[in-house]
C-alpha cells in the first residue's frame, strides 16, 4: 500500500503530537453536495449507490476534492449488516430506511444468524479496497459500523422510531431475547469491521446512534458491553500501524468514563458536551472527537469561525483531539460554510500545537 502523506488524523486518535487539529465530518459525503446528488441520480437509488464499487468510491472522494479534510470515510450505511441477515432493507421516499422483514416475533429472532461477510457484504469490502487505491495515501480511510444496539433498534422497530417502544418492551419483558439479537449483531459487526480493516480501512468508528436513549444501567448492559466485545475482537495493527477505534454514543456524555474503559482509542462526542470537562473526565485514557453543532453550519462564516475558536479553546493545548460535528451534517448545509469551518479549524488550531 502507498505510504500515507497525511497521518495527522491517526496520530491525533493515538494522542500523539500533531501540528494542528485534524478534522473530518460525519456524513461528509452526502446530499449537501450537488455532485453527490448527481451521482446518486445516476445510480438510481441509495442502495445501488452503496453497492456500486465505482460510484461508492466516487462519492467518498467528492468532499476531499472540495475541502482539505484529514480523513475519508467509506460511503455506505449502517444497515448493510441487517440487510445481509435477510431483513430486506429498503428506503421509502421521505421516510428513511425500513425493513421488509423486521424481527417481530420470537421465531424470527431465533432464526437470526451471523451473515457470511465475505459473500453477503463483499460489495462493502470491495469499495474499501477501491477507495484505498484511489486515495493513493492522501489521507487515511475510516471504516464503520452501527453498534449492536443501534442495529437492533432498526431491526426490531422495522425502521426509525421516536420512542423505541418495541425494542424497549422486549428489553424489559424478555431481556434474554434481546441479548440473543445483540450477541448475533456483535459477532456480525466484529467480522464486518475486521473485513473492512483487512481490505484497507485504517481506523474504524462504531456508531451507537441510539445508545443514549437507554436508562442508566441498561446502557451498560445492552449497548456498552457489546461494543466492548467488538473492540476486543478487532484487528488492531496492520502494516506496522495501530488501527484506532472510535466509539460514538450520541447522548452518551453521562457515561464517558465507562466508554473510556472498554479499550477504544477515542470517544466521539455530541454537541451537548463541554470539551474541557470531557477531557478532564477521561484524562489521557482516550482521544476525543467532536463536537461542533451541525446546525451551527447554517450561521454566517463569522459565527462559524467564532464557534470553532470556542471549541478549540475549550479543549486547550496538546494532542488527542479530532475536530468533527456532534452528529451528521444536515443535507441543507451550504457547502461554502463547510469550507469556512475547515479553514477555521486548520487556522485556529495551530496555536494549540506549538
Structure explained in plain terms:
The chain has 354 residues and is an alpha/beta fold. The protein has a single domain, classed as TIM Barrel, CATH 3.20.20.210. Helix content is 48%, strand content 11%. It contains 16 helices and eleven strands. Strands 1-4-5-8-9-10-11 form a seven-stranded parallel sheet. α14 links the parallel β9 and β10. The longest helix has 25 residues. The mean pLDDT is 96.
Label the CATH architecture: Alpha-Beta Barrel
| Series of secondary-structure elements, N-terminal to C-terminal | HHHHEHEEHHHEHHHEHEEEHEHEHEH
Low-confidence parts lasting 5 or more residues at pLDDT below 50? none
What level of helicity do the residues show? 40-55%
What multimeric state do the chains show? single chain
* DSSP summary, beta strand count: 11
Strand order of the largest sheet: 1-4-5-8-9-10-11
Primary descriptors:
354 residues, 16 helices, globular, TIM Barrel, alpha/beta, two-stranded antiparallel sheet, 48% helix
Short description:
This protein is α/β, with parallel strands linked by helices and 354 residues long. Helices cover 48% and strands 11% of the residues. Helix 13 (256-260) links the parallel strand 8 and strand 9.
